Amino acid sequence: MKNKFNFLVTGCGGDIGQSIGKILNEYSVVKSLYGIDINNKNVGQFIYKHFSLGLNCEHEDYLLSIESFIKKNNIDFIIPLSEPELRFFSEKNINKVGTAQIISASSKAQKTGFDKLKTVIFLKENKFPYPKTSSLNEEVYKFKYPLILKSREGSGSSKVHLIEDKESFNFFKKLYPDFIKQEYIDNTEGEYTCCVFRSSKKELRSIIFKRILYGGYTSYGKVVENKNISNLIEEISKKLDLRGSINIQLRMKKNKPYVFEINPRFSSTVLFRHMLGFNDLIWSIEDAIGIDISPYVNDNVGKEFFKGFAEYIK
User: In Å, how far from its chain's centre is CA 258?
Assistant: First the structure.
């Protein structure tokens, strides 16, 4: 078996891509690290020594261009990071491009998490706590204001709106008829972002951050221990038959965790997790290579992290 491998990270210019690149630049099994993004107005080019511009996944020649790149550079593994690309591969059930194996969360996790209404249906069917959710035209539940309107697809604060009254609801309903409405659970008892990793051998590990958001990103987090949360997220991963790494977001209500998002991909806290020894990216690669995943010492409770910025001049 090879000792070193060539990796391609697509969508490498975003915040997650930057974090993944920083980890892989220090990882001993990486022979050469390549990064592709659809534009070069980001710092990916400073992190990835082999940086290239690529096509949007909606382009008719997208798959051919990726296959050509993989062949030319002898890529062993591809890590797609943008949600449109992950959806593209998931919907077509593609787990290998040319000779390169795709490293991502398993199929059921992706198909459930990428559709926010399917996420709620999954939670409901498995009797997990969830905020009341429906399409905009359904009257299954009685909703009180404020409530949340958000896209069924994608993630990020730009696709989530806090609606305070009927007038605002009617305005956004016309603007975004395909959105869904969701019960608003306030932040009184805290918001949590949790990572769950599960290997092909069903080895399961999780970490919980109580977090503060700034500009749509986790700007501060603290590692906490909460059995209600850890039991819930680990049971969710089993029901999803998870292989790989996912991010679960939730808020507490009367000391009960309510999941409002399952993001079936590496998340923006991946570098913080790595710095704390929760190496879900490395474990995913080890699992893909077919070797035992490296050990994890869970001694992080109480540790805090802070998100900063870096500047680059070209």
Answer: 18
